[in-house]
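To whoever is covering the structure queue this week,

Two jobs came back overnight. Logging them here so there's a record in the thread.

Job A:
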Amino acid sequence: MHEIELCAICDRPNCGATVIVSKLGSDRKRFDSETASIEMICPACDKTFELSITAMERVNVSEDQLQIGFFGGRKAARAGFAASSKS
């Protein structure tokens, strides 16, 4: 089973994990209304990154990915996004 979830890609050069926003606890994300962005702590690398809410994507994610809260790198995220966009 797959679900469409709002995701953000960690911008750290050595990470690039796709983070499932709904799976981050409130202690690991903070919305900044002045910049319309969300500051998050990546569950893959434990580093902070910030992303504009307009740059987030809806991605088709599996049950396993939902349980972990993140997956793959940039190429995996883009392939998932392309597949969900064509449906």
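Job B:
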Amino acid sequence: MKDLDPDHDLNIVLQLFLAPDLQRLPDALDRDFVIFGLEDGLFIHANAETFLFFLRQMRPEPGRRSEIAWTHRRGRLATACLVQTEAGAERTTYLTFIETETGWQAMTATFAVVEQQGARVARPVTLQ
């Protein structure tokens, strides 16, 4: 029986981004996936490999909240807004997706981090 929720598969992929499932997330990224953003005054531009590397290095702070603020789907295209709050800062990420024969693939992510006064969001990253 076909799932009655037409956005079911898209919602499953979005859950991979909320609490990054590093085993399954790579399959949800298009081979040309790119992420852009602003954090700590720096402009970030990375491909899928670099994005996944940094996710592996990051450790979520206790009390981190993540939510899907909204989604919009039109045919085989979709967008979503994720909001993550931790350590006095809010990260807003806009994702774009395309539905392929293998399922929903994330094409781009664009984010910005807004810090509260005196908050520190940067964490050390170990380069290999």
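Note for Job B: The chain has three helices and six strands.

Please reply-all if you pick these up so we don't duplicate work.
Q.
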